């Protein structure tokens, strides 16, 4: 019988002992990996649900702050419009008075959370239809 090309007694060819695959450390490592993946998955689901509902029921403090900035800008545009057009504080400008080339806005300002703006009289602040969005 010819000699084997390698030594069959070498431990290198033996499968690792079963205990090496199921050691306590190994199981903890797998458990930690599974927990991290589960948490990442949950975060992903929350972000995805926020994104999908961006049609949009979720309104955040950032949305309200952005909306407030828009309402302030609309108020400033109304104040300038009343001056430029010699109007009174009881007059109500339309979007076409405020939006367009050489006007106050390039496009109609939009509430990021989907609220609808009411310009209102010059003497009163512009409003957003969403609760918590106001001046
Ligand atoms: Zn708003």
In short, what is this structure?
The chain is 45% helix and 3% strand.
Question: Any overview of this molecule?
Answer:
Helices cover 45% and strands 3% of the residues. With 135 residues, the chain is an all-alpha fold. The protein has 2 domains: 11-52; 61-128. The termini are far apart.
Distance between the termini: 96 Å
- Biggest sheet record: 2 strands, antiparallel
Overall mean pLDDT: 80
Q: If strands are numbered along the chain, what order do they take across the biggest sheet?
A: 1-2
Helix and strand pattern: HHHHEE
Radius of gyration, in Å, reads 33 Å
Q: Helicity range of the residues?
A: 40-55%
* Number of discrete helical segments: 4
Please count the beta strands (DSSP E, at least 2 residues each). 2
- Report the bound ligands by name, code or SMILES: zinc ion
What is the overall silhouette? rod-shaped
What tags apply to this protein structure?
single chain; 135 residues; mainly alpha; 2 domains; two-stranded antiparallel ribbon; 4 helices; 2 strands; rod-shaped; binds zinc ion
Explain the layout of strands and helices.
Elements (H helix, E strand, L loop, with lengths): L17 H4 L2 H29 L8 H24 L10 H4 L18 E2 L8 E2 L7
Antiparallel strand pairs: 1-2
The protein binds zinc ion (ZN).
């Amino acid at each position: 019988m010819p000699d084997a090309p390698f030594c069959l007694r070498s431990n290198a060819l033996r499968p690792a002992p079963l205990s090496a695959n199921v050691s306590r450390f190994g199981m903890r490592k797998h458990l930690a990996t599974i927990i991290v993946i589960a948490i990442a998955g949950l975060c992903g689901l929350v972000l995805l649900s926020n994104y999908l509902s961006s049609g949009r029921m979720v309104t955040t403090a950032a949305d309200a702050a952005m909306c407030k900035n828009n309402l302030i800008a609309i108020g400033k545009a109304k104040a300038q419009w009343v001056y430029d057009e010699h109007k009174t504080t009881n007059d109500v400008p339309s979007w076409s008075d405020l939006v367009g080339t050489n006007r106050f806005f390039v496009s109609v300002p939009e509430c990021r959370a989907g609220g609808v703006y009411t310009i209102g009289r010059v003497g009163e602040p512009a409003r957003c239809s969403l609760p918590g969005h106001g001046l």
